[in-house]
Design a protein that fits this description.
alpha/beta, Rossmann fold, 7-stranded mixed sheet, 11 helices, globular, binds zinc ion
Amino acid sequence: MKALVKYAAGPGNMEIRDVPEPVCGDDQIKIKVKKAGICGSDLHIYHSDIAIPVNPPVIVGHEFSGVIAEIGKNVKDFEVGDRVVSETAFSFCGVCDYCTEGYYNLCNERRTLGYWYDGIFTDYTVVPAGRVHKIPEGISFTAAAMTEPLACVCHAIYDLSVIRAGDIVLVSGPGAIGLMAMQIAKAEGAIVVVSGLTHDLERLEMAKELGADYVLNVQENDLIEFVNSITGGYGADVVLECSGAAPAIDSALQAIKKRGYFVQIGLPGKKITFDIEKVCYKELHFSGSLGSRKHSWRTALKLMKQGKVNLEPLANVELPLEEWETAFNRFEQKDGCKFMLIPADEQLNCS
Ligand SMILES: [Zn+2]
Ligand SMILES: [Zn+2]
């Protein structure tokens, strides 16, 4: 089968290769990939600027939906033909304090699908049965392929911040993650401001269509002035920073209220400079967020099933797997929102 492989450490070093189909172990499930989303961290793997352990040569990609093709002999509760998604924490130690407290996303031994273990930019992938979740009825493969990023956003919002009805929430960065964060904040009853740059205009438009109360191009409007104007000068109750860009982080730190919740979701990919003194002077609840946990997946699937979030419009570009380079470039140029790479034998929807 054809697969997109990161074949060596260092920038670039990615190509389509012919690889053997993976073998399904006794406790594993083999999944036929239907839709495969490109994540910002796939670009970081491409550029080799990510701190999460990568083990080349490895098939990249971790956001996907599919159908069970085979189950290992010890696996219960699943059948061939089930529509499924899989968590990306392929392995973790299971005995450290983080693992036993349910925070296996933080286990030092955590090894990830598409980084350490062969991922999903290919036809078939094999994952531990314990990481697999069934896709509820009525959710398309396209939407389901975004369960992973949605689960990460659920972790950031439900485990690391507090959003109350009526709160003003600033979502900084209108990429796929930002648009998911906005929708969950709306579902929680918040008033949401989504901020972005001139090259984000299309995504800001999408934010508006998906329910954002305000969208702001910060190259044409003063973010802090605006947030002050709708909060009586206090600032946003919660910031969900999804861009990872230093100037955005800095202005979000100015736009947030004292004692507010600030969650850094976007990865800068390098050391950056921002005014951390604001965290002290404002007594902020300042946290980062990494990956997701089991209950984040359950919540993500529930929110999709109940129609509290609408993911399908985010996936506005689908390209065949062989055109991965075009997709990566366009993604980097922000020419689209969520990009899907489709295995050769699956059908393409939009391009
Ligand atoms: Zn991802
Ligand atoms: Zn552990």
